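Appendix B, example 12.
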Amino acid sequence: MVFGPYTDEEIQTTTIYLYIFFNYIIIENRRDVELHPERHCPPSDKNRHGQSAQARCPSRSQWPIACYCEEGSITRRLVPELCPRPGGSLILVPASLLGNWVDEWDQLGVAESLGLCLRVQHHDFVDLNLSEEEFDSLRLRMRPDGPRLRKVRSPCSIRAEQYAVLSTVQSYPTQVQKRGGNRRKIGNVFCDCLAWARVIRDESHLTPKLGAQFYRIVESITLNGWDLPNVYPITATPILRNGVSDMLACIKTVNLVSPAISQHPQCRDFADPLTLDQLEADYKRIRAVQKAKGDVDEEEYNRAFTSIGALMAAYCLRRRNESRQNGKTLTVIPPLQCYDVICPTPLEYQHLLESARPFLGSTFRQEDFDAGNQQCVDLQRLLDHANASATLATIPGLVLLKNRRALTANHILQHGWHLNPDKSPVSKLITELLASSGKLQILEQILLNLGLDVDGKPEKLVVVSRKNIVCLAVQAVSHCTKRSDGQATLTTFS
């Protein structure tokens, strides 16, 4: 069973869509290999030599990935980690973010030509709802067997994986379960009988009540009689105003879909839901005593918070000053390879913040925006300020240039740095820039790990950015990580 960890801003909407896309395209590719072997490389068998390492699929031009029939391909290596299998992808997000997810999907611009469809089951997006025919593609073929349902072999349609369905925790019972018209009641739980292979919940920290609803949704899916779904609860803040209560519903959900987790040395102590309930009760009691008396029993406090710390270390991947946590990388979402990122210490981060204020050279106060002072605010100056701030958020070390004009395209073009990036001051600061930016660190690791493509030619990387200064920084990183064979590794566009 694959389950997703909590994570931070490293997991973006596009990453989730890429995860769904790779699942879909690998399933389609494997199905084509099985149904039309004449189009693909013959597999190895016991009666003849193994497949050649140089074997290339005759129809590889039809696929955006290395074909599954090539036994040495990266697709073959990804399959055990990605666990692609038929079935739809359910994405549960807050209602306020539905529009953002739809816009991000539209910006990707690759889905329609490949047959991958996004649908939104919410009353504000009626034009994007699943049709009855599409609902039927997601329904499971059910065989009643007493109070429960027998295990089913597949969805009604072999193309159920082509649907990614956005909804909210609150809307799911009415917009999906009821409208799907296939739900059944098993005990106290409604089973929706829909073929969900992947369930993703964004902002999974939002209130214990919503967490409990999410648990019931996943529980209803596990009673479908089909294989358990891959579940990914995602949040940057697993603990907020309600303390450990904010995360327990998601921990229980992970335990529900991953029964084997009870054997894991870090997780076995939290596999019992009664243990989690007791931990929550202890936490609430300690907080109540703190609020009433201002002090608590030190031994009881340490015992409870040691358990909470162990719980977070076992289930949550957090961004810290250290580059690794318990031997785990900061982000684990297949099939994207993830790299170790070293974050600035609080002291270094404070120094960057203090340097940013004089570097930006402008501040805007609320009173500037009051009706009587609107004339004081220059819109272009405000936009320039916002653009420079966004650039520093990507590469904080750029404040060391000590000249805000150095961030502008005109300044770069005037000095010819776009033609000779090695002569720019950015190249001289590359060590500091790398130390301040996780994105540049990841870029460096990608460049160092480039190999050969399916045709045996050196792999290259293309980086596109709206900011010229970011392209300069990227080129500076590339200059420090040149290939041993002298081949160029990077092309940038701004």
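The longest strand covers residues 196-201. The first helix runs from residue 13 to 35.
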